[in-house]
Specification:
Layout (H helix, E strand, L loop, with lengths): L5 H8 L44 H12 L18 E3 L5 E9 L3 E7 L12 E9 L10 E10 L12 H7 L4 E8 L4 E8 L11 E7 L4 E5 L1 H5 L10 H4 L3 E3 L9 E4 L7 E5 L5 E6 L5 E3 L11 E6 L6 E6 L3 E6 L9 E4 L5 E6 L6 E6 L4 E5 L20 E3 L6 E6 L6 E6 L3 E6 L6 H4 L12 E6 L3 E6 L6 E6 L5 E8 L51 E7 L2 E7 L2 E3 L6 H5 L1 E4 L3
Antiparallel strand pairs: 1-32, 2-29, 3-4, 4-5, 5-6, 7-8, 8-9, 9-10, 11-12, 12-13, 13-14, 15-16, 16-17, 17-18, 19-20, 20-21, 21-22, 23-24, 24-25, 25-26, 26-33, 27-28, 28-29, 30-31
Amino acid sequence: MSKRSAAETDHDAQALKSGQRPEQEQNGGDIPEFEDEFEDEFESEDEIFEAGVDGRPDAEREAEEQEAMDLDQATFIPGRTALGAGESLAPDLSTYEMLHTLEAPWPCLSCDVLRDHFGDNRKTYPATVYSVAGTQAARGREKENQIMVMKMSGLGRMEKEGSDSEDEDEDEDENSDPILETRTIPLATCTNRIRAHQAPQATAARPGTTLTAAMTESGDVLIHDVTPHLSSFDTPGTVISIQQDKPVSTIRAHKKVEGYALDWSPLVPTGKLLTGDSDGKIFATMRTEGGGFVTDTNPFTGHQGSVEEIQWSPSEKNVFASASSDGTVKIWDARSKSRKPAVSVQVSKHDVNVLSWSKLTTHLLASGADDGEWAVWDLRQWKPSSQGASVATKQNAVASFNFHKEQITSVEWHPTDDSIVSVAAGDNTVSLWDLSTEIDDEESKDTAGVNDYPPQLLFVHYMDQVKEVHWHPQIPGALMATGGSGFGYVTCVLAWRDLLANLPIASSRPSACKLILFGQSRSATTGSPAFRNQPILDRQRPVKTSVTQIRLDRHGRSSTFVVMYRRKSAPSKESRDDADGGFLLSS
């Protein structure tokens, strides 16, 4: 309600004629002599307002900065800490050597990286990656499923800040636009898992054969020869015939029982395949000299639950391992007439989802379970039970980690570094680990109040509903991950910067090289001079996207590392792109 009287309101409402000024009040409101009836249009010269670097007063900016610093003193842990309303994760791209994502109509549960003819140990850019993946279409639209054969070229490295003009031409080549080429093979069912086998080149005129095996939801295993699909990328005008899209063999031994486990033997060039199903049966399929496939209908049995994973030994062509929902890992001899396991070990109280057999240190086997724990086992310590090989024994793991709190969906040893392992989990993260890293008792005393970060943890990449991650066998440090939500399919190709390995220190992997904190911590503190691992605010970045830094003093050399993830208060429409990213210690 108005506080003025009706008379005053009516008086104010009267219209003024053109150019007429309102009359002054007579109750002492007369304009004194020599006083301008209008206010000065300019500020007094004695009143000076200083603005900060962003155009605002320093006091206002500092107040906002202080408020932001007081918001959250806790460490942000991806996969555990929930984002607040209006918050999203944004990656610091400087922690990546390379990061590219692609999207297709349907999500994929599985992918595999193919070897190519560009050579090993490649470190130049732009990079080229060949891969295969199988889709998972929505219920009722199964006929839209397909196997995707992909060539990703022009994969440039991340742009470097402050690069010299001399490197401009080189950077321009490295940062070329990525190109995706695909060849699709139609399927009428979802692919649970896909694995590729590349036979060596038979003659100079005849290239090597690339086969894919897809374990499908229908229970059939479809084997395709994708050699013509791959060749078509480098031969313009090539048309793939309908016949070439058809499977060269279909394994029906599982009798419509769904499964996820399959693996090609790395020691049988022509091709030998193992497949496992939800009934606990494992079948072996051999490729004949004529190019056909023969499946032994007598299965390997012994698991009391679903066979979730199979891994051939990288050094003995008749030995393989299997993991099951019964919590056991079993070692088998493929020559056994009884089709029973040689050794059985209870490795978890939960489902064992994945396995990886180290190709460099062949007595090490990694496993990942449904409770989020993954472990490394020394097979030299595994012995059969005195009650018989079918009875599971208990063994101690060489190393075990429960950092992830959701199911482990993928685990894989690095192809050229026998201490590095990649892990994907249901908490939407891909983590990289270095098992050669340790921390001594003196260093462990100063953890800034954070006690559950293993020193072996090197890097964490966030990816929505990630299902699998695989190392590229020819590009050091490069990985390919697949996952997705809803109708979106996202595959990420990334290469992390192993900056710790390049530091001029006495040992290649010192015990002080450890990741203490991730993500978001806005307290501005300093640590002890010997090992400063408390979070400090990075003043070079906007307050709303502050990061955590870790300072380490190794052998007299002080280094500052920035942990890449930070919270973003106002996600844009491209929040999906912002959501995929990682953590890394970067100098």
